[in-house]
Amino acid sequence: MTEPTIGVLALQGDVREHLAALETSGAHGITVRRPEELDAVDGLIVPGGESTTMSTLLSVFDLLEPLRARLKDGLPAYGSCAGMILLASEILDTRPDAQHLDGLDITVRRNAFGRQVDSFETDLDVVGIDGDPVRAVFIRAPWVERVGAGVEVLATVPDGPAEGRVVAVRQGSVMATSFHPEVTGDRRVHRLFVDLVRAA
Ligand SMILES: NC(=O)CC[C@H](N)C(=O)O
Residue 192 in 3-state DSSP? Predict the structure, then answer.
């Protein structure tokens, strides 16, 4: 597979930023709004945005079950922020009717960083990314409170009140970050995902 086709779930959220990031990361990016479009992708990004809104729209667009089925089948996926929330197997502090995709064996807490620091930036060391640390932008971000046995922690908050909190994970070819690499211009996180898609 030379240039994999990677879908960006395009129901809500920062779809354009992820498409632009894919185009400069060695992949062809397409939007996914319909089950047929999902059939055409080698991997899928669930973007940042608002997880409960995306959850509602997944049902409205008849994508919830097809997407769960493809993830179960091994579709590589990457979720940033709201995307991490949707990919989780358990969500804390969400709407009682919010759906999740069950692509990663993690428990996430939505809006976990609290009001004072609900948006901030920091430098992170990310497993699998060499060189300079990654500038991580957190916008009303979740953190991971539990990781299942097969889940590798890729990054934790280095200091401050949230020191040690898990903010990037991978389980097989599914990965998620609490932060938004799609808004910084540093493509190393997207390249990491494109490599996972190629290897899958
Ligand atoms: N930047 C984001 O994606 C924020 C996520 C949002 N707080 C949610 O619950 O979905």
Answer: helix
